[in-house]
Amino acid sequence: MYPVLYMRITQGYMIGSHKGYYAVDDGCSDTAKDYMVAPFSGTVKQIYPQYENQVFFESDNPVLFADGTEDYATVMLSHQDSPMSYGMAIGKHYNQGEKIYVEGGRYAGKNGAIATHVHLEFARGKYTGWHKNEYGYYCINNGKKPEECCFIDDSYHILYNYGYNFKKVEALDEYTTGNYITLFNMNVRSGAGTDKAILKVKDLTEDGKEHATSKRANDVAVYKEKTVFTAKEIINKDSSVWAKSPSGYICLKDSSQIYCEKV
């Protein structure tokens, strides 16, 4: 998935400072600092804080590219100001949809030196570094056009796509009944939606009580991180996805975060 939820591409590839390679600059929603999400589940392989805080992020497994290719994927994000956010470090793992980066204006080791944006490059294959191209610009190895790599869905806000045709997928099709694991401590609610009441521990099934963060009957029902539960029904509400489990309703995903994964 494309890592910017508010797409506003301000410079395309193969032109200007992107001559000879497939980089894009995205100004996101406005002149403030928006966050980026992990386009796939993966691990940070390299960071260059002495330059523009370039981060190289590699997928855990082969992924499906928008052009139909299946392979490992690497993305480079650049220009976040220091200090970096969301626990960023070499070896840090992020799940798809988790906040990973923030746009900024860092250039040549100095915060706020240029207009706020994020510089993005996408590549097929595992992380192998970068190189200086024939025009003198450093770029990711095995780079590909972003629209050949990334999908979007209905949760994205397309302010300006620079004429690039990103393939759109149904945001909710990937969610089916079956077993899921929580990636965080998760509230168990009486219905689908954050407007629904959080249940009490006493309302859970016996198995659900075993996985609650509290054993006190009148405490709110919260499943521990890494709890496995069964989704008997999937409910799509607004831009979020909910699972009906034997104990209650749990959010699987909303427009900014993935909370549970299929197992």
Rg to the nearest angstrom?
20 Å
Count of helix runs: 2
Bulk shape: elongated
CATH architecture level-2 label of the largest domain? Distorted Sandwich
Largest sheet: 9 strands, mixed
The computed structural class is: mainly beta
What is the H level of CATH, i.e. the homologous superfamily of the largest domain? Glucose Permease (Domain IIA)
Task: Report how far the terminal alpha carbons are from each other.
Answer: 20 Å
SS elements, strand count: 25
Q: What number is the mean pLDDT?
A: 93
Kindly state the percentage of residues in helix.
under 10%
Order of helices and strands: EEEEEEEEEEEEEEHEEEEEHEEEEEE
**CATH C-level label of the largest domain:** Mainly Beta
Please explain how this structure is put together.
The chain is mainly β. It folds into two domains: 6-168, Glucose Permease (Domain IIA) (Distorted Sandwich); 178-262, no CATH class. The chain contains two helices and 25 strands. Strands 1, 2, 4, 5, 8, 9, 11, 14 and 16 form a nine-stranded mixed sheet that branches. Strand 22 (233-237) and strand 23 (240-244) form a beta hairpin. The longest helix is centred in the last third of the chain and has 5 residues, at 206-210. It starts with 5 loop residues before the first strand and ends with a strand. The relative contact order is 0.16.
